[in-house]
């Protein structure tokens, strides 16, 4: 056996052992089971933002008020699921169809972004990881997501996500802080149109404002709200329904006339 071949085999063994150790480590750490009853104090994403503010000399602070699932408007819950992860209750942490579409999009764009992230994947990233886009982070995210889906109920995953998701540019985290900041009311009091606007900005909450008039926010919020109406989740105001023309009502109610929400969702990290 030549020295060159020996070094190559040694390198392969080290690489294999390192990979096994890396994967094995993330199957036991972090301890996701404690999230069954314990609310996270500060997420990795919050810490990332704090370091970012320190580098930029910004004196922002985390604004967050934890609320239980039952204290969150059903309209908001439905709007977020429509906008972010419409198959949440059915999948086991991964939406493979959305991932396939995202990969095809990345191949065409010749970029590695790998969108199609579910709420469970987004929560894994927010709680424990960084917003980097490298493949290693995605592997760690996948393992943690798989573990969370088996340790926590769907309702608990959604409750934590809605309480830790970033919702603004100056340290605004969680739906309660967002509802009070933008609408001056609690998360439980949010109406369907307010919920649609809050859900619309989740892909990029630092760039878009729920109260803003940007074309993206208006279109995406309208799309989410129209889907809520079609599914019987929300009912338009009586006067607005009366004033709407037959053509506009037909457009809002026909399944074929509404742009799929996936087409308006930026690739997630």
Structure class: mainly alpha
Percentage of residues in helical conformation: 55-70%
User: And the CATH topology?
Assistant: Penicillin binding protein transpeptidase fold
Estimate the mean pLDDT confidence: 81
SS strand fraction? under 5%
CATH superfamily: Biosynthetic peptidoglycan transglycosylase-like
Give the CATH architecture: Orthogonal Bundle
Report the order of strands and helices: HHHHHHHHHHHH
| Cα end-to-end separation | 45 Å
Can you summarize this structure?
The chain has 269 residues and is mainly α. It has helices spanning 3-26, 44-56, 74-84, 96-109, 119-128, 135-151, 154-164, 175-183, 192-200, 215-230, 238-243, 246-253. The radius of gyration is 21 Å and the shape is globular.
Produce the secondary structure layout.
Blueprint: H1 3-26, H2 44-56, H3 74-84, H4 96-109, H5 119-128, H6 135-151, H7 154-164, H8 175-183, H9 192-200, H10 215-230, H11 238-243, H12 246-253
């Amino acid at each position: 056996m030549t020295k060159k071949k020996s070094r190559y085999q040694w390198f392969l063994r080290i690489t294999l052992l390192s990979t096994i150790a890396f994967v094995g480590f993330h199957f036991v750490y972090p301890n996701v089971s404690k999230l069954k009853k314990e609310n996270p104090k500060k997420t990795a994403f919050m810490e990332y933002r704090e370091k970012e503010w320190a580098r930029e000399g910004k004196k922002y602070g985390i604004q967050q008020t934890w609320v239980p699932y039952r204290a969150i408007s059903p309209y908001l819950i439905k709007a977020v699921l429509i906008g972010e992860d419409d198959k949440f209750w059915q999948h086991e942490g991964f939406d493979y169809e959305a991932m396939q579409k995202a990969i095809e999009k990345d191949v065409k764009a010749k970029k590695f972004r790998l969108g199609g992230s579910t709420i469970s994947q987004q929560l894994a990233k927010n709680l424990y990881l960084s917003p980097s886009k490298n493949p290693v982070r995605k592997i760690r995210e996948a393992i943690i997501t798989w573990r969370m889906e088996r340790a926590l109920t769907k309702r608990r995953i959604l409750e934590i996500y809605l309480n830790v998701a970033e919702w603004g540019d100056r340290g605004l985290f969680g739906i309660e802080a967002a509802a009070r900041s933008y609408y001056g009311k609690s998360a439980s009091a949010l109406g369907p149109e307010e919920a649609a606007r809050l859900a619309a900005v989740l892909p990029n909450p630092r760039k878009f404002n729920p109260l803003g008039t940007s074309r993206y926010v208006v279109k995406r919020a309208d799309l989410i709200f129209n889907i809520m109406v079609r599914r019987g989740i929300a009912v338009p105001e009586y006067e607005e329904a009366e004033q709407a023309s037959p053509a506009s009502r037909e457009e809002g109610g026909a399944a074929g006339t509404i742009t799929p929400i996936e087409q308006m969702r930026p690739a997630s990290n």
